[in-house]
């Protein structure tokens, strides 16, 4: 088929199709006697697989997967897929951890938390959480914690809501979430001022994880179709 036909089939420009070929995402096209590209159903399946992989694994990983598959390096491609599935599973575990903690953290409202002997010094809060003070400083640099300073001494003062934030951050870190993601959650929590806002964030997060899981299933089916159209050796790596 002509480049324009393949492009229209997938809602792409002909230049995009050529770029994907040049990048190794789909195999090189056969050339006619006059030098024009002649694409096949295998190329169409390859583009379909790549476009299905993107919402499931992101652009960078999807390119790596397609280059490996197109290049006959099936084991390498499967490793990228495994990593994506493992990340999704880890995110689900983290979500479950936070959801399970919400009822416990609900006690740490401003009034209840006020009875926890706040303000804490950095050393006292570190002991309360079983952490090193250096960890709390790292969290502060990442934007996870924003404790005020004593205007007289310049020392950090962890008030009731700061203690709540630190406890939640500790749960998220145990769940394997990176500091950047935790900082984003804490910003939303501080802006909204309530755990109810966090619950809504988690609800959206669950929806995102469900969408990603469905996208991975669909991408797997499209990738399998592409593999069927490649040379038999692609199945064995």
From TrEMBL:
Q: Which residues cross the membrane?
A: 40-59
As one GO molecular function, the record gives: DNA-binding transcription factor activity
Q: Where is the HTH merR-type domain?
A: 1-40, 119-188
| Gene3D superfamilies cross-referenced by the UniProt entry | 1.10.1660.10
- Official protein name in the record: MerR family transcriptional regulator
Residues spanning the signal sequence: none
Which Pfam families does its entry note?
MerR (PF00376), MerR_1 (PF13411)
Report the domain of life of the source organism: Bacteria
Keyword Amino-acid biosynthesis recorded: no
Which InterPro entries does the protein's record reference?
DNA-bd_dom_put_sf, MerR-type_HTH_dom, MerR_fam
Does Membrane count among this protein's keywords? yes
Query: Which keywords belong to this entry?
Result: DNA-binding, Membrane, Repressor, Transcription, Transcription regulation, Transmembrane, Transmembrane helix
């Amino acid at each position: 088929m002509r480049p324009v036909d393949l492009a229209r089939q997938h809602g792409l420009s002909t230049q995009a199709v050529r770029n994907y070929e040049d990048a190794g995402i789909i195999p090189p096209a056969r050339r006619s006697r006059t030098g024009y590209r002649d694409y096949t159903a295998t190329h169409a399946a390859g583009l379909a697989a790549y476009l299905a992989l993107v919402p499931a694994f992101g652009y960078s990983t999807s390119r790596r997967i397609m280059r490996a598959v197109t290049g006959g390096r099936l084991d390498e491609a499967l490793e990228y897929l495994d990593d994506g599935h493992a990340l999704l599973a880890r995110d689900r575990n983290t979500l479950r951890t936070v959801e399970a903690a919400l009822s416990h953290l609900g006690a740490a409202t401003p009034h209840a938390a006020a009875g926890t002997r706040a303000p804490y010094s950095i050393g006292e809060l570190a002991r309360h959480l079983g952490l090193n003070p250096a960890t709390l400083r790292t969290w502060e640099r990442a934007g996870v914690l924003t404790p005020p300073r004593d205007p007289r001494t310049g020392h950090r003062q962890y008030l009731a809501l700061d203690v709540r934030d630190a406890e939640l951050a500790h749960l998220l870190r145990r769940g394997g979430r990176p500091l950047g993601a935790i900082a984003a959650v804490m910003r939303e929590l501080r802006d909204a001022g309530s755990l109810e806002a966090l619950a809504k964030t988690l609800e959206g997060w669950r929806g995102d994880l469900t969408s990603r899981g469905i996208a991975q299933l669909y991408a797997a089916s499209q990738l399998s179709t592409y593999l069927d159209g490649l040379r038999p050796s692609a199945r064995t790596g």
